[in-house]
Design brief:
The protein is α/β, with parallel strands linked by helices. Helices cover 40% and strands 16% of the residues. The chain contains 23 helices and 17 strands. The protein is globular and about 100 Å long. The N and C termini lie far apart (66 Å).
């Protein structure tokens, strides 16, 4: 990809539109106007060579064919494109008659094919146009957008993805989007792709292979598009046979859905595979399974409005959420269950970005713990990678990528690999006497983009991938048996006592438990419970016993515990020396000041 396509002049796009819109629209509304106009301009540029043929074909057949039969004829006239426009106008020609700009622009919009009109509807473009007309800015906006060259010769589809990305990022920043509604940077998607498609070369290089990629929280469609590109350009770069990759996505946010559908249409994908709606309560792909799934679902976002629907489905043994439901304030584990329900029988691979909550939130018996138990006991969890902080544009929190499959390689069966991509090393600095911490798997951005202060380079990704493929225990990679994440949560009881300190017993002569002294102990599934009790509890609380009827099994994944590095306290002699040097420096400074 050439420089002109990677270094897209988004600032220029933003600047000219800001000059037109800033007095009539609030700063946080500018993106709502810019994005649909960029989509229309892109379509307008692509259609330029075929417009005459489409219009002549339309005039010839409009009274002879039904609207349904006319669509494929017009697509053929458009050179096989999945969109067309039958009006006599282009964005440029609209400027020739400024006095009729409103009528002609509406005619132009209504002459697009139905998919494009659905996209504009999802952008709520009619409201935007009405506001521009009210403020006498429609001509100025069309004139401004026409100054941008979005022909495919100037910027290819990959570069166009960057345009959308940057506009969305800037728009989100200006509208103060919450941390859970962040945009997934390409370096994070690159890690996901490299792990997700590792070892898939032989399967994908067979003749006649068709594979599907699905994202149930697809946003603007970037993940599935980059996943497809990764397979064709990297995994199968040297293959004689290229697989057919079909992308699918579902998105709740109307604007994001509109962009995803636009991009699918522009790049020749099947735009009808991008669906609008809530993945929990309006699953648009019921009963369908996919070979690859990837998602970055929103963090810490409530599912309260869908609570009744989800809890009803959770009662159904065939339902997606039968394993359990997490707390209503965070739906990340619901997305995970939704994706697991769509695995192909012959094997699927899944990559999901989460924050730390799904790893360890919830005690034994909670919905979160039960979901983890279900995933791990079914041997679907293959690997989790902890990412460095400050990788995302709108949040600096710790994030993790889960990799799951129902077709583990033989050497991975019954095991889970954890990789600490947040690891740091200590750099000794000469002369200063101070050590410096440095990330091993990322580097600082040359320029911060919102909260994104770090980036993961191809070299870092290669190192992480090597840890994954080596599948060995080491400083930054740990291999565990599935049972290692499970524990018995024991309820430890102590007797109630009277004023004399004597145990109170029930009718059967058994001591009554004192609820105020009740405690719990978590014991690994790999340990003997009674041995643990005798050695760790009994010596400290001789009268205690285990209430076995209250025992629960829990599962958690505690990265901090597994990768904890003890840092010894500094020697007192070192600290004394530093204090003496500091005192000497202060004394010298004071002496110089009061000379």
């Amino acid at each position: 990809m050439s420089d002109k396509n990677t270094k897209v002049d988004v600032g220029f796009i933003w600047q000219i539109t800001d000059d037109v819109l800033r007095d009539a629209f609030k700063k946080n509304e500018i993106g709502d106007v810019v994005l649909p106009f960029v989509v229309i301009r892109r379509l307008d540029c692509i259609l330029e060579p075929v417009n005459t043929n489409v219009r002549e074909t339309f005039e010839r057949f409009k009274d002879k064919l039904s609207s349904e039969k006319l669509v494929p004829v017009l697509r053929k006239a458009a050179g096989g494109l999945k969109f067309y426009n039958t009006s006599q106008h282009t964005l440029h020609s609209l400027k020739d008659e400024p006095q009729y700009i409103e009528i002609n622009f509406n005619n132009y919009l209504n002459s697009f094919n139905p998919e494009v009109q659905q996209i504009l509807e999802s952008f709520q473009f009619d409201k935007i146009v009405a506001r521009l007309i009210k403020n006498k800015l429609l001509y100025e906006m069309i004139d401004a957008i026409c100054k941008i060259d979005l022909h495919t010769e100037a910027i290819d589809n990959h570069g166009m993805g960057y345009v959308f990305e940057e506009l969305i990022r800037i728009s989100n920043e200006q509208s103060n989007e919450t941390a859970g509604e962040h945009f997934t940077p390409r370096d994070v998607i690159e890690i996901m792709n490299s792990f997700l498609f590792a070892g898939e070369e032989d399967k994908l290089a067979q003749p006649g292979v068709i594979r599907t990629i699905f994202d149930p929280a697809c946003g603007t469609g970037g993940m599935v598009n980059l996943g497809k590109k990764y397979i064709l350009n990297k995994v199968c770069a040297n293959s004689k046979h290229k697989p057919t990759i079909v992308t699918y996505g579902q998105e709740l946010n109307e604007q994001s859905f509109a962009i995803a559908k636009s991009e699918a249409l522009i790049t020749g994908e099947e735009a009808n595979n991008i669906k609008h709606g809530n993945s929990f309560s309006e699953d648009q792909f019921p009963g369908k399974s996919f070979h690859y799934m990837m998602a970055n679902p929103p963090y810490g976002v409530t599912w309260k409005k869908d609570r009744k629907f989800i809890e009803n489905e959770a009662l159904n043994p065939s339902g997606r959420f039968y394993a359990g439901t997490p707390r209503v304030s965070d739906g990340q584990l619901l997305f995970l269950q939704h994706m697991l329900s769509k695995m192909e029988h012959e094997g699927s691979r899944i990559g999901v970005v989460t924050n730390g909550s799904p790893l360890f939130t919830g005690n034994a018996g909670s919905g979160e713990s039960d979901i983890r138990k279900w995933i791990i006991e079914n041997d679907w969890l293959e690997c989790i990678v902890a990412l460095p902080k400050d990788l995302f544009y709108n949040t600096g929190i710790n994030t993790y990528i889960w990799f799951l499959t129902n077709n583990k390689a033989p050497h991975r069966k019954g095991k889970v690999q954890l990789i600490n991509g947040d690891a740091k090393e200590i750099i000794k600095t000469e002369g200063t006497g101070k050590d410096k911490e440095q990330h091993l798997f990322c580097q600082p951005n040359k320029k911060s983009l919102g909260n994104k202060r770090n980036e993961i380079t191809k070299d870092h990704i290669s190192k992480l991938l090597n840890l994954y493929q080596s599948f060995e225990d080491g400083e930054h990679s740990k291999i565990f048996n599935n049972d290692d994440f499970g524990y018995y949560q024991l309820t430890i009881e102590q007797p109630k006592v009277d004023e004399a300190g004597k145990s109170i017993v029930d009718k059967k002569g058994q001591p009554k438990a004192d609820p105020k002294k009740r405690d719990t102990e978590n014991v690994s599934l790999t340990e003997d419970v009674e041995n643990y009790f005798e050695q760790e509890v009994k010596p400290h609380v001789p009268n205690a016993w285990i209430a076995f009827d209250k025992t629960r099994i829990g599962y958690e994944i505690n990265f901090t515990k597994y990768f904890y590095n003890y840092k010894p306290l500094r020697l007192s002699s070192e600290i004394k020396t530093e204090i003496k040097v500091l005192e000497s420096d202060i004394a010298k400074l004071l002496k110089d000041l009061f000379k």
